[in-house]
Amino acid sequence: MFNTVSGRRPGGAVASGPHNARNPLPGRAFIAVIVACASLMGCATSSDVVATSKPNTYTIAASATGGRMAWARAHEQAMNQARDYCERRGMQTSVTAETVSGVQMLTEHGSSMSFECHPKF
């Protein structure tokens, strides 16, 4: 009989094998690398909001890498930043134009957006 909590057999002998506390699971390092890579792939970054020459009209750019759907993360990041910018001013967002770039896996995908802040009704 084997105690999975203590890693000992009856009589105090320490079990050998991959579940021994002194011998961690062989795939643990591999799993850590996969988790680290997956977390990096989920990231998107954005520029600061930039005012244009038109009143209450702004631009923002966002980018993301990893996978075919990275453009969606870039779009979402740009939308969230635009919405937050207008909400901090007590206004609502209206997107006037958006350009999306990048379609291949493992390349940088981007979203450039122009938006306006309008009073809430």
From TrEMBL:
Region (Disordered): 1-21
Top-level taxonomic group: Bacteria
Protein name: DUF4156 domain-containing protein
Naturally occurring in which organism (per UniProt): Paraburkholderia aromaticivorans
Taxonomic lineage: Bacteria, Pseudomonadati, Pseudomonadota, Betaproteobacteria, Burkholderiales
